[in-house]
Hints:
By secondary structure, the protein is mainly α. The chain has two domains: about 1-70, Arc Repressor Mutant, subunit A, CATH 1.10.10; about 80-230, GntR ligand-binding domain-like (Four Helix Bundle (Hemerythrin (Met), subunit A), Up-down Bundle), CATH 1.20.120.530. The chain is built from nine helices and two strands, in the order H-H-H-E-E-H-H-H-H-H-H. It has a two-stranded antiparallel sheet with strand order 1-2. Helix 5 (about 115-130) packs antiparallel against helix 6 and helix 6 (about 135-150) packs antiparallel against helix 7. The longest helix has 25 residues, at about 85-110.
Amino acid sequence: MKPNLTTSLVEHLRERIGSGDIAAGEKLPSENSLIEQHGVSRTVVREAITRLQAEGLVHTRRGAGSFALTPPAQDSESNSIIPRTLAQRRQLLEYRMGFETEAAALAATHHQDHDLLAMDQALRGFEAAAGNASQSMSCDYEFHLALSRSTGNPYFSKAVESFGPVMIAMPRQRLETGISRASDRLGSVMAEHETIRQAVASGNALAAAAAMRVHLGNSISRLESEAGEKH
């Protein structure tokens, strides 16, 4: 009986994370709340959280609780504007397209060697994180943060830091493990990041801006595809 209760709770929480009802970086309901809401034991709740941790969908920080995908930065202000719906995630991507396109152009002409190394480290981490949504999201964010810092303009990096990992769009398929389509999507994101990095390294501001615009435009398309697949 208990495994069925655990599986049901896992599926419920997975659905809430995937739909954005519990947004990336947002704290999960407390153990007591889950016990009361679902009529299960504390053991069932803890087993469900452990399974979600193994899937990379939940990160637990001692003394702070469990968070969807990844906890927010300690000083992050993103919780006040967490994008929960597909429409809100699209709006955030549209906003990012505005300032990150210009950030990529500036990075091409202002970057230092250590900035490229930081981008490369994030790219390697992203590739190694295949199948772990939390690590994938974290490395995706670290890539964009490294690029913003390479502009030499602190306002760009502050914009990225203010959101934290919540700024990364997470189509529902990206949260699903063991699905070839999810792997294809991650591969596309990886290739787009590499194109941006190469354009920045080349010093070509126009190419870097174009590569970022393509990446974020494709991210919007991936979200719209998710919306279409739900109907």
